[in-house]
Amino acid sequence: KENIFDVAIFDEASQIPIQNGLGTIHRARKIIIAGDENQMGPSNYFVSKDIDSLDLLHQADYNWPSVKLKHHYRSVHPDLIAFSNQFFYNNELTAYPERNADIPIRHHYISKGKFINRKNKIEATQVAKKIHETIKIPGSIGIVAFSEEQLSLIWNLLSKADQNLLSEKIESNNGFFKSLENVQGDECDFLIISFGYGKNEDNLFMMHFGPMNRSNGRKRLNVLLTRAIKTIDFFCSINSSDFKLTNNESINLMRKWVSFSESYKNQVDYLFPINNQPIIKGKEIHF
Predict the structure, then answer these.
(1) DSSP secondary-structure letter at 240?
(2) CA 27 to chain centroid
(3) Per 3-state DSSP, what percentage of the chain is helix, strand, and coil (rounded to 5)?
């Protein structure tokens, strides 16, 4: 039966397989389809993860009139959206003027971090310390690691008190603690990211990044980098110069993000010069 609904609205339509929307489309007089083509597409357990399913947003954009929504509402500092604006949205997004007194992006370089047995313990230790500093600040917190193994390690390095505080925030929708491939639709005041990957015990950087190596890895990176309202703290144990030349667009974009983060005005270096204890160099940290 047609015309059951006056208006049908599909939100996050990049995640809706086209076949899931056809029944409602057939029964509606007017249809509004909203979404972002640079966000993740629908997933299907029975389809290869390297293949994007046909989504409703793509088909609607191709066949029907479209309007771009260009106001970025989430981040309270334009620098938080600057990378995605350049590499995903052709600098067409209009961000709010600076409304946040905090430094929005901090790059944490862990000079002795090593990626061994699919984990980076030195980096995870510093991430756990940052969580301890941040979790008591009023506001929501998001922690993302690029692999499940690194995420589990960070959790195990948290004190019981910090684990309980984080669990309380998650239960009250004031926090999330996820691996990269599970981030979608989340937002937080303070975003803490652990890249985790780095050189192995033989000092080789293999560039095996799990979900980031797939064709949709670039979309995963965009989703991740657009979650923050106030600040991003990015922890990594490699430099952008450590990346090798590759034809993989997602990995090249990852290198560009690391370079962008490095060049930001407030880099924090963990230099470990004496007794393996870090001397932290940065504008806001003093010993």
Answers:
(1) G
(2) 37
(3) 35, 20, 45
Residue reference for tokens 């990594």 = 236
Q: Which pLDDT band holds residue 99 (cuts at 50, 70, 90)? A: confident
Closest by CA to 231, choosing from 189, 194, 193, 266, is 189
Listed in sequence order, the residues at least 6 apart from 88 whose beta carbon sits closer than 8 Å to its beta carbon are 38, 222
H or E stretch including 178? strand 175-179
3-class secondary-structure state, position 219 = helix
Using alpha carbons, select from 30, 211, 238, 1 the residue that is nearest to residue 115. Answer: 238
Beta strands in 180-270 (DSSP E): 188-194, 228-236, 267-270
> In the predicted model, what is the mean pLDDT of residues 267-279?
51
Least confident among 54-63, 191-200, 212-221, 238-247 = 212-221
32 DSSP β-pair partners: 9
**Cβ contacts of 238-241, under 8 Å, gap ≥ 24:** 238/195, 238/197, 238/198, 238/199, 238/205, 239/109
Q: Would the pLDDT of 152 be above 90?
A: yes
> What DSSP state is assigned to residue 95?
E
* Segment 260-267 long-range contacts (CB within 8 Å, at least 24 positions apart): 260/82, 260/83, 261/105, 261/107, 261/234, 261/236, 262/107, 262/109, 264/79, 264/105, 264/106, 264/107, 265/103, 266/103, 266/105, 266/106, 266/107, 267/106, 267/107, 267/109
The model's confidence at residue 267, banded by pLDDT at 50, 70 and 90, is low
Q: Compute the residue count for the chain.
A: 287
List 192's β-bridge partners, or say none.
143, 233
* 51-93 residue pLDDT tens: 456 899 999 998 999 999 999 989 999 999 999 999 999 999 9
Identify the DSSP state of 279. Answer: P
Helix (H, G, I), strand (E, B) or coil at 222: helix
The model's pTM is: 0.85
